[in-house]
């Protein structure tokens, strides 16, 4: 089998060599240089460029219409909607510029090919006025883009978290856990040296506020209620990515990071909209080892009543860790 | 040095101090690594489009251990992704591109007999060669090559417990990179000194061809940023081998609490990207220089706005040092810092836009000759536009939240940096091949190579934007763990199809390259009717470049189709005529 492959490769190369030799010998007979670029080449290549250019732009449009239904559904968080708007604005801008510049490029390539021997290019080394215009024009456009972008960023990162419910999201190779503060509304302290057995998050059980904390395998959120996620990692850098809410934040060992947002649609509302199979998900988006591709946690957004019922079913840490000792 | 001295085989072809031979050494090593890196991408593309399916080719290359039954091992998948990135970014597009064209063109285009130090130049190649050998050895170690991504973020890259590739494979990666940085610094210092000090009479800075400007700025970027990577790598070696805690803190892994406290993985990211972002421009700028030259020569027109082109190169280079944080918007950095990095990042769009407009203005009312080099230069303009524009989304911190580390990023940087730079490299090879080997590359094979490459490259990377907008993270072994990505398999199949097609056609280029070295038609002294100095050297390679005096320079490099001239080009060596003004 392997010998066959090598043999075929050898034959292909030998055939190519012979073909090239024939071409070169033929042109020698005709007293031409086979590698000189002729007017005919210019015509053919510029034609191909035009056709490929049109097909390229057409295929971009085709790709958009064929695959637009696969894109993420509209954001289901308050800040996510502002991100989507900024995205739409920027997208439209770059698509327009992309198409315009490519049309100009392909048109120039076609129009200004050297068609005859006496074709002479126009000597035009610079035009300061023109250059000034096309420095200032993108500057103005970018000023708008930057100001708009920064205002959205500012809204997201400076969100008021005083009324938010705090939940901890904890990543380790290769799964996620969530920790709820319990009735005292305070997450107990932690120390990585306490990570052992059932106490996978290293929670300090000598801290009284830890006793009623609840550690779960799913992340449940209340619709329309602001939440502040605090992220930690046990081992290496993970990234908590909740694409539907437009939320992403790295989980870094040795430090705590956070992201505040407000979900706006329950899971069942999304099932009605996107189909029965729909689930919110939190996935890992920073390379973290062999099962990185399957490091996920189910996320459920629900009404306050359902949420309360679910939370009540979960064991507190004191039940889990202290009674079983 | 100008006379023919006796050269043995070893001093001529192996330990050569002639810049032209060193350039060829870089080029051929770069091409070899390019094939290796590209092959890796095809192997992991097979897994991505057909997850869990058996392929004989996988078993053929990876053996029973890493592809049991022809199915790619998930650890090997991560290794392939890591090594593909490392090889393409550093070995092909840094050393292969700059090493080739800086060495080849700098003395020839400024009118010097050789580099300022031929010996240091030789060392630069041999350090690179040693780095290559170490990196290739790492492919064959028991625990597999490095697999923490080409950005080797600790703690993943620091802890063998976290991933097998972070064992010996990662050690060898770091040693290879250290050697690579030494090579790059030796080369870079040489390029800077040579361009600043050895220009021939009349070759003022304002008459330098744009390739020279680009390579000078690239060398400065490299000298300022590579040492930072070196220090980052050294600290990582310390953390890995000597128990320090620069990047490690509060880690429990494999049931064991490590002693490291007080370090920060984020420190590594800052150090890495302080090199890493300028590195993107170290890759891109030589291509910008080469393409400026080739577009001007083949449009038979001066490059439009020479000064603006130089200033925009400088602006891009300067800004590249203060934008590294845009790789880290979601590391939990201070939001204000995020704003600053968004601001500086988006500013790069201005000099980039100026460059695109100037290219278009150069093509306007031109008399375009479609050499294979020119086609690749046009391809460059297209990818520079396409990839540059999506940068507006990724550079905007608020938008980055949702596309960070998805396939949108993969599509973006492959188009703007990967494709643009490799097109620049192909353009350069087709254009300067006659000067390198005294023969022409086959035109028709060049055309086929360009068209198949151009179509399949867009076929690979354009659809990736859609994958990213669907939320698909990069570096996933398979998407099948998430029902939300089930619909994306068609797109993945299209991408893999074009990846294989684009990969195969590169073999045609390699064939054309080696065929033409030995059998290509003989080149004339100045086959493209070009103005720059390298085309005044004899076809026969001599150490010292010009047999007699070094020519002196009287004008800029872009007097094409100047009214009143006899021909449509006026070489730089031609004195100004009475009453003639310089551009």
Reconstruct the topology from this structure.
The complex is a heterodimer of chains A (325) and B (583).
Chain A: H1 2-29, H2 39-67, H3 78-111, H4 128-157, E1 165-172, E2 175-180, E3 214-216, E4 219-222, E5 227-233, E6 238-242, E7 247-251, E8 257-261, H5 267-274, E9 280-284, E10 296-302, H6 304-313, H7 317-322
Chain B: H1 9-14, H2 19-49, H3 56-66, H4 74-110, H5 118-138, H6 168-197, H7 210-241, E1 252-253, E2 256-257, H8 265-299, H9 306-319, H10 335-347, H11 349-363, H12 372-394, H13 397-403, H14 407-437, H15 443-469, H16 489-519
Helix pairs in contact in B: 2-4, 2-5, 2-16, 4-5, 4-6, 4-7, 4-8, 4-14, 5-6, 6-7, 7-8, 7-9, 8-12, 8-14, 9-11, 11-12, 12-14, 12-15, 14-15, 15-16
CATH names the topology of the domain at 165-323 in chain A as Immunoglobulin-like
Q: How does the helix and strand content of chain A classify structurally? A: alpha+beta
> Quaternary arrangement of the chains shown?
heterodimer
What do we call the CATH homologous superfamily of the domain at 165-323 in chain A? Cupredoxins -  blue copper proteins
Give a written overview of the molecule.
The complex is a heterodimer of chains A (325) and B (583). With 325 residues, chain A is an alpha+beta fold. Among the domains of chain A are: 1-31; 165-323, Immunoglobulin-like (Sandwich), CATH 2.60.40. Chain A has seven helices and ten strands. The longest helix of chain A is centred in the first third of the chain and has 34 residues, at 78-111. The model of chain A has no long low-confidence stretch (mean pLDDT 92). By secondary structure, chain B is an all-alpha fold. Among the domains of chain B are: 16-201; 209-328. Chain B is built from 16 helices and two strands. Chain B has a two-stranded antiparallel ribbon. In chain B, helix 12 (372-394) packs antiparallel against helix 14. Chains A and B meet through helix 1, helix 2, helix 3, helix 4 and strand 7 of A and helix 4, strand 1, helix 8, helix 9 and helix 10 of B.
